[in-house]
UniProtKB/TrEMBL annotation, chains A, B, C:
Assigned EC number: 2.5.1.18
Protein name: Microsomal glutathione S-transferase 1
Quaternary context: Homotrimer; The trimer binds only one molecule of glutathione.
InterPro entries documented for this protein: MAPEG-like_dom_sf, Membr-assoc_MAPEG, MGST1-like
GO MF terms, alphabetically ordered: glutathione transferase activity
Name of encoding gene: LOC117577736
Catalytic activity line of the entry: RX + glutathione = an S-substituted glutathione + a halide anion + H(+)
One of the record's GO cellular component terms: endoplasmic reticulum membrane
Lineage: Eukaryota, Metazoa, Ecdysozoa, Arthropoda, Hexapoda
Purpose: Conjugation of reduced glutathione to a wide number of exogenous and endogenous hydrophobic electrophiles.
Length: 152, 152, 152
């Protein structure tokens, strides 16, 4: 078995794949902030008095477009952020490169799909449920592998 | 002092303990998503029009069972996710194995207890407050050790 | 190019700077939990029946002071937590120490400023927007560097 140093390395294609998808998913999440802001300006829905650009506006919390993006964003927090630690620790268990790389791709692509069908163009179910469960399943599998290599 | 490479290693019992509890807590958090979904179906409380299974249903945001699990889940985001980076960096400061392992156990067990008394079987206070502060205190202690080893 | 082992090391000033700011930002985030609790007690705004200290109280969800701190805290989850993985992976790309250290400082200082102007003393816009975008821009730049070193 290689030392962990050889695993946390730009020479390890598994680690480089983890880097690529992690950074893409962070940028995707930042896109949710910008999309929320965009909808706030389009619908003039601001949550703080100091954000109101005119004395005629009042704070509002219930615009369906803003809230939809916020729900999608919260779902990212619940699923993508745990992937970051699990993917890193899974890389350190020295997994099969083929399996690991395709799991990272599955998480990355399915979370991008989740955003598209939830917050960009609303697609009927089960589109969102499917994309949700692919990423959840892949991350849960990695977590199980980390547990098998871990201790308590 | 050992090199950090010897710390990020399956041969380091502190690191393996961090791996085990981190992965367990990620699975626990995913359990919150499933529990939220379960309550949504039991109480027919759906937040998106495309989730409604019958034209008689309307979107709903105020079911107390759904909202209770969502509050517990958000509390996880606020406390467990910061633990992931702090625990990893704390491991790299080469802490006493005895202290580090028991801090990880304290965080893991108290966060599981927090979920049980908040979102599974509601237990009167101070059960939830106690489990909350044990994990917070342990993570804050680790953060202070990381700051002492860090720079600005 | 150095091995990644030399990068994840207390001898690497970039890594130590990442450690210091990460741990400070975690403690800052925990401060949001305490500030939320403080406002809950001041305004007697409790979200759970088991938290009510008197039978005369009822659960409440709409206190503006509590909700303001909660919005600031959620903004931390959306921006600081992604910084943790991006900052770590960026450190592993062996960046210029000058650039990396100042990016970490920019994120740390601007996120502390964001909290101060949002949740402690409300300062008119664009104070909050500026602090938000400095941290977002710095983290997004790091994410792009990680993508360039990564794979898919």
């Amino acid at each position: 078995m290689p030392l962990q140093i050889e695993l946390i390395s730009l020479n390890n294609e598994v680690f480089r794949c983890f880097m690529g998808w992690s950074a893409v998913l962070v940028l995707k999440m930042f896109g949710m902030s910008l999309l929320t802001g965009l909808w706030r300006f389009i619908t003039l829905t601001f949550a703080n008095p100091e954000d109101l650009m005119s004395p005629k506006l009042k704070v509002k919390f219930d615009d369906p477009n803003v809230e939809r993006v916020r729900r999608a964003h919260r779902n990212d927090l619940e699923n993508i952020l745990p992937f970051f630690i699990v993917g890193l620790l899974y890389t350190l268990t020295n997994p099969s490169a083929f399996i690991a790389i395709n799991l990272f791709r599955a998480v990355g692509i399915s979370r991008i799909a989740h955003t598209l069908v939830y917050a960009v163009v609303v697609v009927p179910q089960p589109a969102r449920a499917l994309s949700f469960f692919v990423a959840l399943g892949a991350t849960a599998y990695m977590a199980l592998q980390v547990i098998l290599a871990g201790a308590f």
